[in-house]
């Protein structure tokens, strides 16, 4: 899943987009999902709005499988839902709270559209829209250019990010061409 969010150009923020959802909403995402390419994505409910997301990929150079795992947080702003993947600067962080206190956590986020029990469509950020917002000083942050693309690192609060992301501009702030459908292949077992 981390690989899904880490493309050539990225947007990340020191604060998540949206406010925490209910535990019931987060639990609904738990299970095994499949990409159109047939790759499974595993989602496990942890607590509150926290999830763990993982996928397994083949490392051709080393002839072995690799597990990619990330902490994720389901959030909402009004009727819109987002999945925020936490990227910690420390490989083995004890907790989200410790990362937040040390200000060493960044979030990459996607908008969740067309959600049902059987499918989800994710939309990735439009890097150009967030780059313009930083250049125009609408949002605080930095822009880093490299051969692999543009990296936007926002230094904003959740409130500032929520205010900037406008449902009327969904096609501008989230790129419709990046719509990424997932189909559920297994629901998580009911909690005892």
* Oligomeric organization of the protein chains: single chain
Mean pLDDT: 87
Number of strands: 12
Kindly provide the radius of gyration, computed on alpha-carbon positions and rounded to a whole number of angstroms.
16 Å
- Order of the strands making up the biggest sheet: 3-4-5-6-7-8-9-12
Domain count: the total is 1
- Spell out the helices and strands N to C: HEEHEEEEEHEEHEEHHE
Give the structural class: alpha+beta
What is the approximate shape? globular
- Determine the fraction of residues in helical runs and give it as a percent range: 10-25%
Quick summary of this structure?
This protein has one domain (2-186). It is 18% helix and 45% strand.
What features would you highlight for this structure?
192 residues, alpha+beta, 8-stranded antiparallel beta barrel, 3-stranded mixed β-sheet, 12 strands, globular
């Amino acid at each position: 899943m981390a690989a899904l969010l880490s493309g050539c150009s990225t947007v990340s923020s020191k604060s998540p987009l949206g406010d925490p959802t209910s535990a019931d909403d987060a639990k609904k995402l738990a299970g095994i999902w499949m990409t159109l390419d047939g790759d499974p994505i595993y989602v496990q409910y942890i607590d509150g709005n926290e999830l763990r997301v993982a996928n397994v990929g083949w490392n051709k150079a080393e002839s072995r499988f690799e597990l990619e795992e990330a902490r994720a947080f389901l959030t909402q702003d009004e009727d819109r839902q987002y999945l925020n993947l936490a990227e910690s600067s420390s490989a083995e962080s004890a907790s989200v709270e410790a990362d937040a206190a040390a200000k060493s956590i960044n979030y990459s986020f996607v908008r969740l559209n067309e959600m049902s029990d059987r499918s989800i469509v994710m939309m990735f950020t439009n890097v150009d829209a967030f780059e313009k917002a930083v250049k125009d000083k609408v949002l605080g942050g930095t822009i880093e250019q490299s051969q692999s693309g543009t990296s936007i690192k926002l230094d904003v609060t959740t409130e500032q990010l929520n205010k900037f992301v406008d449902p009327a501009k969904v096609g501008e702030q989230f790129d419709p061409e990046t719509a990424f459908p997932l189909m559920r292949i297994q629901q998580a077992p009911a909690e005892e």
